[in-house]
Design goal:
Order of helices and strands: EHHEHEHEEEEHEHHEEHHHEE
Strand content: 15-25%
Number of strands: 12
Shape: globular
Number of helices: 10
Largest sheet: 8 strands, mixed
Strand order of the largest sheet: 6-1-3-2-7-8-12-9
């Protein structure tokens, strides 16, 4: 199997933050160890529906620290990952690659396939892998519909990715489900309320046609959709706060106030979801759209 990781362009400044390196590393670790696993049911449902199996070529946009890629390779897929966050990308490298120290490229030892890490300006080098046959599936699993402008952030990534796949290739987009089906929505509203002081990066509810709008702008043709239950479960309230902060949804709120205030208000919003044993449990539903390349 082949695994390739590519660092992609950053999102616009109004939808991303640039924390100090130690904070960025800690947040990426929280994402990898606490939050990323919450979407495993979504990854598995998509892979099952699209019959990802031995030899399937998968291009993952916004691959985080690589968990979705690992699940795909467990099915025999050959994967390429694209990630804007350098710290998350470094963790994905730890999971998927070994460094050879040459030109920013990481490879596994001979006999385990061509597994490469490439910077953004060399994304074209990952076009279909060594045999250049193109990708069989493109995924954008990072859910949209939580921060103003996050849907538009997908546009440049899709413009780059679509030419790397053949006609009719499925592209999967993901987003939050209806607010009334997502217990976490009430917690995420903290971000919007605090960030409104800066009037940017604020949280907003998911709209019904978010995914279709992204597909239309990219020239993709919708070809099915689905909903998946992805409950957010945490060992305790502290883990829940750290996991939620790692998503980036609260970055605007931190800029508008301060981290301690945001942590306090998230903790208060979590109280209805605390169980007697101290764990936190929030049922959620996420939606995905399958669209086809032209």
């Amino acid at each position: 199997m082949t695994r390739t990781l590519v660092q992609h362009h950053q999102l616009p400044s109004d939808t991303a933050t640039d924390p100090a390196p130690p904070e960025a590393a800690a947040r990426a670790r929280d994402w990898a160890e606490i939050q990323e696993r919450m979407l495993v049911p979504l990854y598995e449902a998509v892979y099952e529906r699209l019959e990802v199996r031995d030899g399937t070529r998968v291009l993952g946009l916004g691959c985080g620290s690589g968990l979705a890629l690992l699940l795909a390779t467990a099915r025999g897929a050959r994967v390429t990952g694209v990630e804007a966050d350098g710290e998350r990308l470094a963790l994905a490298r730890e999971r998927l690659l070994t460094e050879d120290g040459r030109d920013g490229v990481g490879r596994r030892p001979s006999g385990t396939g061509c597994e490469t890490l490439l910077p953004a300006d060399r994304m074209a080098d990952a076009a279909g892998g060594p045999d250049r046959t193109g990708y069989d599936l493109i995924t954008a699993f990072q859910p949209i519909g939580s921060v103003a402008g996050d849907a538009k952030g997908l546009d440049p990534a899709l413009r780059t990715a679509i030419p790397l796949a053949g006609r009719g290739t499925p592209v999967v987009l993901a987003g939050w489900g209806p607010p009334e089906r997502c217990a976490t929505d009430a917690v995420l509203r903290v971000a919007g309320r605090l960030a409104d002081r800066l009037r940017k990066g604020a949280r907003r509810p998911a709209y019904r046609d978010d995914l279709e709008d992204v597909a239309a702008r990219a020239g993709l043709k919708p070809d099915g959709s689905g909903r998946v239950a992805c409950p957010f479960g945490y060992a305790d309230q502290e883990s829940a706060v750290r996991g939620l902060l790692s998503t980036g949804v609260f970055d605007g709120a931190i800029r508008a106030t301060d981290r301690r205030q945001v942590e306090k208000e998230i903790g208060e919003a979590l109280h209805p979801h605390l169980r007697r044993d101290g764990t936190v449990w929030m049922p959620n539903v996420f939606r995905y759209l399958i669209a086809r390349t032209p």
